[in-house]
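Subject: Interface between my chains keeps coming out wrong

I've been trying for a while to get a sensible model of this assembly. When I model each chain on its own everything looks fine, but I need the whole thing in one frame so I can look at the contacts. Pasting all components below, labels as-is. Any help appreciated, I'm running out of ideas.
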Amino acid sequence: MKFFTIDQLDQINEGEEKPARYAVIGNPVAHSLSPQLHQPALDALDQDARYIRVEVEIGKVSEAFEKMHAAGIEGINVTVPHKLEALEACHKVDPAAASMGAVNTIVFDHEGKRTGFNTDGPGFARAIREEFGVDLGDLKVIIVGAGGGAGRAIATQCVLENCPQIILVNRTLEKIEGMMEDLLRLGQPETLEGPRDRISTIALDDTGLEEAIAASELIINTTSVGLKSVDPSPFPSHWVEPHHLVYDTIYNPERTRLLRDAESHSARVANGLSLLIHQGALSLEYWLNQDAPISEMRKGVLETIKG
Ligand code: ATR
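Reply #2:
Try treating it as a single job with all components included. I did that and got this:
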């Protein structure tokens, strides 16, 4: 079964040995790699649990959460297009998730009340440490495509980690101007020193972009440009220099044009697989209160992507 609908929740355990206890919701959801990420981890941890996909219509997220919990689901991941609706359907929302304007992880308490978290931002911080051996908070970052969902989550994390420079780049400038105001209001002033001096915005076609990239240490692509193998780089990739770390949130194709060009300019590069894995691992840690088996998760996803 590729996915269930909310009307099929009474069938989720038919003919199965292990009960469905965890799930991802989305629309469409059939392509979601979350089961390939989580099932090997649940098995490695000897959990008597299956991870399933549930397709949910827009406007029905709250109803889906209630029915899924009644059907025995204990933890939920949320993917496109439900991350904002999921936030609104929670009884409690983690402050960082509220700042990101999106929830991707639901935890139920013993009464069935829902708390929403966003593991994309913290998962990104872990991915950067794993890939490049540095703390995100020590880097001058530039986020190309900050107006999308992933861009916003990563930008919020950069603010929370006190990055010394955060440049938000977007094709449509208006989309990030409002977001910048939200970011400036974020957190406690005593832990976030002078965010107004550290955060700026620039349009993708601004002539100052080359200079902004040169002044950055970590370049992050969160645009969807690169998803097709024929896609160009989202900005002129000859601007990448050997001192740059370049992270593309796209993991399929494995090497976007941006990453290929950046490598040929001797920059260190990484793709979004580590973000996918670490955001999933953090969800699992919220549900099970134990460390996630990262290598099993990586193996599960790689088998699917390469297969
Ligand atoms: P979401 O992540 O919210 O689903 P999206 O529509 O997939 O959003 O877009 C993600 C990011 O990719 C956005 O920053 C978007 O720029 P706009 O806000 O200007 O739409 C960016 N993006 C998508 N296609 C692009 C393109 N051809 N050139 C440059 N940026 C692009």
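Reply #3:
Confirming on my end. The longest helix spans residues 273-288.
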